[in-house]
Amino acid sequence: SLASKNQEILEISNDDDVVGDKYGDGGTFTDLKNLLNSATDGETIYLRGDYKFVEGSDDGYNDFFAHQSYGKTITLDGQGYTIDGSGKSSILILSNKDNVDKYITIKNTIFKNAFNPSGDDSYTGGALRLVGNGTVINCTFIDNVAPRAGAIYWGYASNVKIDDCKFYSNKATA
Prior knowledge:
It is built from two helices and 17 strands. By secondary structure, the protein is mostly beta strands. It has a six-stranded parallel β-sheet, with helices on one face. It has a six-stranded parallel β-sheet with strand order 2-4-6-9-12-16. It has a three-stranded parallel β-sheet with strand order 7-10-14, with no helix packed on it.
């Protein structure tokens, strides 16, 4: 019967993943960069684990963050997981300044221990540097440090909305 065939299908499919979205199970900044780079326009990336800067494996990202210009609309939903700079690296630079019709949304993510030693304005922002259109919703920023904008920096000609976020012990050193 149709009911028994539907029951069989429901029993086979017990995965909550949505086709067309990406899921990250945690790891290093290299893993996070690869996950973000693999997203297509309009996709949502869901974190299912923490990400942490690991010296040795993530070297080179400390001035260049986990991800850079992308030219696509994406949503990063941390689902309460943490992205940790280990006191050695900034976390994310997301830019869509040349694609004004694209939008970045970051939500439900904890950003902590980011460190940006650069005095260069193009690399300000300890945890996040956003250039273009974006929204940061329900995120927490803890112990992030940069010469300017210890937690979040948004660049020129940017339209960034910060909503329901918490900031603890972030520091601008300049």
